[in-house]
Amino acid sequence: MKEFLYADNDNYGSEFVVTGINSVTLGCYSCAQMKALYPTGFNVICQIGKGKKILGDIKCDGCSLPAYSLDYSIFYSSAGYIQLGDNGFAVIKKSNFLFLLLYFSAVISIAVLMAFCLTDYSGAFAQNLKNDSQIREEIILPYNVTTKQHIDTKNVDFEVPQQSDITFIANQRLQNYSYSNQKINPYYVVIQILFDDEDIIYESDFIPPGGGIQKIELKKTLPKGTYNATVRYFTYSFDSEINALSFYDYQTKVLFS
């Protein structure tokens, strides 16, 4: 198992507690602090918190933490970052279970209320569903994820695209947005566009080497205005397992006109 070394930096702005036989408090970067320190992106190697696969141990004064492979499940969110001795970072994950439980309970309650109140509008409701389906069918994904071959990703860097401000049409879900994953890249790419760190307004499918997107469907419509945004690029192994590798952030602005 690999050993990672915890870097105790003086400029950590937050703390987290490691529980065990003896509780240990360690410094960490907050999500906002990481954005300020690394506006063009940073390399996340592993995560602290429940994960699917153990990569090794993170060694620090007074404790040892298991280092897990990156897991982007909606059941956990990023609570901060620590720096490791090899110039990478470990993300600290916290459970979203209570939030998700309350969220889905609210969604179910609203759905039941709508079903009760809209019985006289079934025709209009069906037409709305049809229109929404047509929007999804217009999204262009010019690739087919069928490749099972293995390409080595060791010591391969991801080049974060340097793009200008993004312009979208206000009050519309279907938008023009182009991205191409170069054929020479040995990994799949998944793109997220986020507002205020955690508000995901778009997430792509797996984009293989040589594939790309031309149109996207936002998760919701937004009015005219300028929004601070993060474009997040996830990379995955280009094989049948499609293991999570790392992710990179790029700060930009989204203009809805």
Report how far the terminal alpha carbons are from each other: 52 Å
> Helix fraction?
10-25%
Regions with pLDDT < 50 over 5+ consecutive residues? 120-145
User: Strand-residue fraction?
Assistant: 35-45%
Overall mean confidence score, pLDDT: 79
Question: Biggest sheet, open or closed, and with what strands and sense?
Answer: 5 strands, mixed
Q: How many individual β-strands?
A: 15
What structural class do helix, strand and pairing data support? alpha+beta
Judging from the principal axes of the Cα atoms, what is the shape?
Answer: globular
Q: What is the radius of gyration? A: 21 Å
Order of helices and strands: EEEHEEEEEHHEEEEEEE
Individual helix count: 3
In the sheet with the most strands, the strands line up as 9-15-14-11-12
Give a short overview.
By secondary structure, the chain is of the alpha+beta class.
Describe this structure in words.
The chain is an alpha+beta fold and 257 residues long. Helix content is 17%, strand content 40%. The chain has 3 helices and 15 strands. It has a 5-stranded mixed β-sheet, with no helix packed on it. It has a 3-stranded mixed β-sheet with strand order 1-5-6, with no helix packed on it. The longest helix is centred in the middle third of the chain and has 21 residues, at 97-117. It is globular and about 55 Å long. Mean pLDDT is 79; it is low at 120-145.
